[in-house]
Write a structure and sequence with these properties.
alpha+beta
């Protein structure tokens, strides 16, 4: 009987010890989480979006949600130092837009467009700005030692269905842009059509900027998706509750 009581006592003490260790581990994890989120509020779903902060876990969802709040989107662009002009609404059957802007040269953004001054839905302009600051320019400096000065693109607003489908493309609402190439300050030109395949710096750069776009845009489609995207990166801000497509 005494031995049984001794064994039960040792088991109870062991359980209390493990419980204490579990509590200590949980408190340690909570402390680490507190320190992380205090320094990275962009990783929380309820904190306000700030275009000047690094990309966080919920940045992409917050950018897409701007589709429902045009005044907030414009305010965020202005606060981030992005120069833009508001465009008049367009209605064309099921197509059109009410919240488009044209990104103008100067300000916090330094990359121009070819063709120049494309109009796009405000959330796309916000995501493009963050893509430039957090993804494109760091990747260009890392791979080439030179900054990007021009986005070459195939357009934004275009009332048409998705290729091979009867569903309207996000281009029909100016929520998309097709990026075809990048021109560097030293004159070099990187294009999706020519440089996507391979193991060189150009291909690595294109994959880096594609991967970085996935955290900012609702949809990021590259040549890895299908033949229709062999020559461009399709980037859009379709509002669909945070679900993202990255190929």
């Amino acid at each position: 009987m005494t031995r049984r009581r001794g064994r039960r006592g040792r088991r109870a003490a062991a359980r209390r010890g493990w419980a204490s260790l579990g509590i200590i581990a949980a408190l340690f994890a909570l402390g680490l989480a507190f320190l992380h989120f205090r320094n990275r509020p962009q990783d929380l779903p309820w904190t306000p979006l700030d275009l000047g902060q690094p990309v966080g876990w919920f940045t992409g969802a917050k950018l897409a949600a701007l589709d429902d709040d045009y005044p907030l989107c414009r305010s965020l662009l202005t606060r981030a130092g992005v120069r833009f002009a508001e465009l008049e609404p367009v209605e064309k059957g099921q197509c059109g837009y009410a919240d488009a802007v044209r990104l103008d040269p100067g300000g916090a953004r330094t990359i121009g467009f070819d063709p120049a001054k494309p109009g796009m839905a405000c959330p796309v302009a916000a995501a493009l700005s963050m893509w430039e600051w957090n993804v494109v320019q760091p990747a260009a400096l890392r791979h080439f030692g030179s900054r990007v000065v021009t986005f070459e693109h195939f357009g934004t607003y275009n009332c048409r269905p998705i290729a091979g489908s009867t569903h309207l493309s996000q281009h029909s609402y100016a929520r998309a842009i097709d990026i075809a190439g990048f021109v560097l300050a030293d004159g070099r030109r990187i294009t999706v059509a020519r440089d996507w395949r391979g193991e060189d710096e150009e291909a690595a750069f294109l994959r880096d900027v594609r991967d970085g776009a996935c955290g900012l845009f609702s949809t990021t489609l590259s040549p890895d998706y299908n033949a229709a995207h062999h020559d461009h990166l399709h980037l859009d801000e379709q509002p669909r509750g945070g679900w993202r497509a990255c190929r």
